[in-house]
């Protein structure tokens, strides 16, 4: 949506949708590809997409992708990147005048940007392998929680979670309410349980049709629903974090 007024064409490449339709859009040409690791590898292996002219790579939520086991996929994708536009690992190449001159040519150095909330060893390993002399930018205070958010931790057993959740909801917490889980099946089961208790609940995960997802987000904005979102899908994690912030 942001690119349309600027004349920038974007193509979304994700699982759950037709690979052939996505491949057709890629062949029509685009400036930006927004993709999940698995489907991106799929279109690369089937030659729907070639990255030999790619000059800008963004790894968003790098730590989450690593936690979810996508490190081999990310490495495989980066191996598809051309070596012809890698910036030389020299002091001369870091000169601002040289960098600006290169930016105005057709043979731009490839720039890789990595966003991560934490820096575990696996992410550091990825950075060392594919980033050259990276500039590190910290946003906010490292290790300091957001002071606008009240955080409460309950140390309870697995079999006590349902009872505790019901107790919290029955206190009269103002909607909209977003609840995170780690399994789609568990989300559906618990949503039905909440409905039996009189709560207006619905689920949002990768098993839902796109039109249902759209309606659910609209309902959330209207403050009409209790939402039960599985944390297992990257796109849901990204959107939910944006809402919380």
From TrEMBL:
Residue ranges constituting the Helicase ATP-binding domain according to the UniProt record: 1-137
UniProt keyword annotation of Transcription present: no
Keywords: ATP-binding, Helicase, Hydrolase, Membrane, Nucleotide-binding, Transmembrane, Transmembrane helix
InterPro entries attached to this UniProt entry: DEAD/DEAH_box_helicase_dom, Helicase_ATP-bd, P-loop_NTPase, RNA-helicase_DEAD-box_CS
Pfam family, one: DEAD
Domain of life: Eukaryota
TM regions (residue ranges): 226-244
Protein name, entry field: Probable ATP-dependent RNA helicase DDX23
GO BP terms, alphabetized: regulation of gene expression
Annotated GO MF terms: ATP binding; helicase activity; hydrolase activity; nucleic acid binding
Gene3D superfamilies reported in the protein's UniProt record: P-loop containing nucleotide triphosphate hydrolases
Native source species: Liptenara batesi
UniProt keyword annotation of Mitochondrion present: no
